[in-house]
Amino acid sequence: MTVTAIETGKARMKTAQRLGREGRSGIGRKIDIFRDHNWVEPMPIFAYLIEHPEGRFLVDTGDTWRNSVPGYLPDWNPFFKQVQIKVAPAEEIGPRLSAMGIDPARDIAAVILTHMHHDHTGGLDHFPHNRILVTRESWQASRGFSGKMAGCLPQRWPIWLRPELIDFTGPAIGPFAASYPITRDGSIALVPTPGHATGHASVIVRTPDLVYFLAGDATYAEADLRAERPDGVTFDPALSRRTLRAIKEFCAAEPTLLLPAHDPGVPQRLAERLVF
């Protein structure tokens, strides 16, 4: 098995989104983002390709160049003015996979979504014939007006999108009370990591000598996880901190590569097999 990081453009966010101020509630952290005038350096938007004997699996789809089209991001929602997304057409996940000799619509056994924020679902159009997996809780929370307010773009999803909804009915994995096996051999599994978004999930990939923890946006960077610092997006800082502690406990228990969706350290970590 192999795990490959595929960059699909860059995201720039406020410093208050990257790390929330200690002691602030979920609402207070949102207010801090709007008040903040400082921006972090552009961060990568990663999707992850898992090549397994049962097929190729893609975790998240990155974002789309259409962010640059006036009106694509709704002007009425101030959330979208707090993030800058820059994706060239050739940087979308479809062209990226094609450049690797992979037909995105035919050669991917399943697309696994950690959550439904726009920078993780923007490439869904490239996968009309594929299984799409997402937690039931994430799907329900991302629809309608409340989903639009929370950073999702259900009005931009493909009209054919009917994902398979996942409930965590599988066995506990380490500190995670339940799981959902993706492959028959159980070497790829989904675990609940809520906090950044309702129903957020992470993907565990277990190989004979190494474990990969694909964290989505449960944390933005390994340093943030080590310090157990929730971001500014979380709706429940206490829940996010419990999730961070669970991930940290899991990663410390055996040789594990931590792979968040926006961590600039990912390429080096993968190339040098730098475990947590």
Automatic annotation (TrEMBL):
The keyword Calcium does not apply. It comes from the Bacteria. The keyword Metal-binding applies. This is Beta-lactamase. GO terms for molecular function: hydrolase activity; metal ion binding. Residues 44-262 form the Metallo-beta-lactamase domain. Its cofactor is Zn(2+). Belongs to the metallo-beta-lactamase superfamily. Keywords: Hydrolase, Metal-binding, Zinc. CDD domains: AHL_lactonase_MBL-fold (cd07729). PANTHER family: METALLO-HYDROLASE RV2300C-RELATED, QUORUM-QUENCHING LACTONASE YTNP-RELATED-RELATED. InterPro entries: MBL_superfamily_lactonases, Metallo-B-lactamas, RibonucZ/Hydroxyglut_hydro.
